[in-house]
């Protein structure tokens, strides 16, 4: 009977701790997003672009300029402008794009799925190849395999991605015809399906449009492979480092003395412990891909967030740039929070401390 009051008392102690943890998390999110709003607002004020001229044009009369200046709220104090900016940003109102003449939130909603699809395929390639390659290099430390993996990783960091992209198009598209050219899909397949999610691979597969699906795969294969290669280089390098650290631990020596199979030591015990910091590496790699791989999207005419921001910058469309920048910041915050959560799930020591 004494166990029931003890259990109740334990739950009562756990509730304030859980509430405090949730409060700290919400406060961190609020402060971070507020900081993002401050930074993007200041960027819009310090860049050498006149927002009024971007709206009315450089041939407008002075009266037209003055009227637009007032309508944009630029005659108000800076803190009032910031308050209005926050109010609009919270509701997703970033204004209208000068380039497309559409609400910026609609443009971002159209461009981001293309980047999301490309980044997801790329990080899957990088992770599924990078982890085994990194483990293999760690197990064969100092041998030929290790040297080859390190050279591949070095090339992944040093080779310009735009050069590899152009070379890939020249060889695999123009010469051999193995993959499709720039863009997400050939125009002949654009109306073969309804883009409900904006993820063409998912939409075509769900609607059974397999010819269009193959065309989408052919288009995404080369840019995703390039980005996947760069992610693989980083993930393999970090996996190798983490695995070398784990294989030098005492529990590995003890397991070997006890006669535990080598594959089990490597792939079950050591890799499981190395997976804890590796989660952060993969998450941040994914976040960097989601921010818009500008050069890759430019080379392959991929209509994603990176290309959208590039076009906006070239046309002095600062509202679009600020909206995209804020979205990128929110993505980083969200993925960092996800990384912290997964870190807690995978490492019981972190759970006990928290």
Automatic annotation (TrEMBL):
<dbReference type="GO" id="GO:0071916">
    <property type="term" value="F:dipeptide transmembrane transporter activity"/>
</dbReference>
<keyword id="KW-1003">Cell membrane</keyword>
<feature type="transmembrane region" description="Helical">
    <location>
        <begin position="274"/>
        <end position="302"/>
    </location>
</feature>
<dbReference type="Pfam" id="PF19300">
    <property type="entry name" value="BPD_transp_1_N"/>
</dbReference>
<feature type="domain" description="ABC transmembrane type-1">
    <location>
        <begin position="112"/>
        <end position="339"/>
    </location>
</feature>
<dbReference type="InterPro" id="IPR045621">
    <property type="entry name" value="BPD_transp_1_N"/>
</dbReference>
<feature type="transmembrane region" description="Helical">
    <location>
        <begin position="151"/>
        <end position="174"/>
    </location>
</feature>
<keyword id="KW-1133">Transmembrane helix</keyword>
<comment type="similarity">
    <text>Belongs to the binding-protein-dependent transport system permease family.</text>
</comment>
<dbReference type="InterPro" id="IPR000515">
    <property type="entry name" value="MetI-like"/>
</dbReference>
<feature type="transmembrane region" description="Helical">
    <location>
        <begin position="322"/>
        <end position="346"/>
    </location>
</feature>
<feature type="transmembrane region" description="Helical">
    <location>
        <begin position="216"/>
        <end position="236"/>
    </location>
</feature>
<protein>
    <submittedName>
        <fullName>Peptide/nickel transport system permease protein</fullName>
    </submittedName>
</protein>
<keyword id="KW-0813">Transport</keyword>
<feature type="transmembrane region" description="Helical">
    <location>
        <begin position="25"/>
        <end position="43"/>
    </location>
</feature>
<dbReference type="Pfam" id="PF00528">
    <property type="entry name" value="BPD_transp_1"/>
</dbReference>
<feature type="transmembrane region" description="Helical">
    <location>
        <begin position="118"/>
        <end position="139"/>
    </location>
</feature>
<keyword id="KW-0472">Membrane</keyword>
<dbReference type="InterPro" id="IPR035906">
    <property type="entry name" value="MetI-like_sf"/>
</dbReference>
<dbReference type="GO" id="GO:0005886">
    <property type="term" value="C:plasma membrane"/>
</dbReference>
<keyword id="KW-0812">Transmembrane</keyword>
């Amino acid at each position: 009977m004494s166990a029931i009051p003890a259990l109740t008392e334990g739950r009562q102690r756990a509730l304030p701790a859980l509430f405090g943890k949730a409060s700290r998390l919400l406060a961190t999110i609020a402060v971070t997003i507020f900081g993002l709003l401050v930074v993007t607002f200041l960027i819009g004020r310090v860049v050498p672009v006149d927002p009024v001229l971007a709206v009315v044009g450089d041939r407008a009369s002075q009266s037209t300029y003055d009227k637009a200046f007032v309508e944009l709220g630029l005659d108000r104090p800076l803190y009032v402008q910031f308050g209005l900016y926050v109010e609009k940003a919270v509701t997703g109102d970033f204004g209208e794009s000068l380039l497309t003449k559409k609400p910026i939130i609609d443009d971002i909603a159209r461009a981001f799925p293309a980047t999301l699809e490309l980044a997801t395929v790329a990080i899957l390639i990088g992770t599924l190849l990078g982890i085994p390659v990194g483990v293999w290099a760690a197990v064969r430390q100092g041998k030929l395999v290790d040297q080859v993996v390190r050279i591949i990783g070095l090339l992944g960091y040093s080779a310009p991605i735009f050069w590899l992209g152009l070379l890939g198009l020249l060889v695999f598209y123009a010469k051999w015809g193995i993959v499709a050219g720039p863009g997400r899909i050939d125009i002949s397949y654009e109306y073969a399906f309804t883009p409900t999610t904006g993820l063409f691979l998912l939409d075509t597969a769900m609607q059974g449009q397999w010819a269009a699906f193959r065309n989408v795969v052919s288009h995404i294969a080369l840019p995703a492979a390039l980005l996947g290669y760069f992610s693989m280089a980083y993930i393999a390098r970090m996996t190798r480092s983490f695995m070398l650290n784990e294989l030098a631990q005492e529990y590995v020596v003890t397991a070997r003395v006890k006669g535990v199979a080598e594959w089990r030591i490597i792939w079950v015990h050591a890799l499981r412990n190395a997976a804890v910091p590796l989660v952060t590496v993969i998450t941040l790699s994914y976040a960097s891909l989601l921010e818009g791989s500008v050069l890759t999207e430019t080379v392959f005419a991929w209509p994603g967030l990176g290309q959208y921001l590039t076009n906006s910058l070239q046309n002095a469309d600062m509202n679009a740039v600020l909206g995209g920048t804020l979205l990128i910041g929110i993505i980083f915050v969200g993925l960092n929070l996800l990384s912290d959560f997964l870190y807690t799930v995978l490492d019981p020591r972190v759970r006990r401390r928290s």
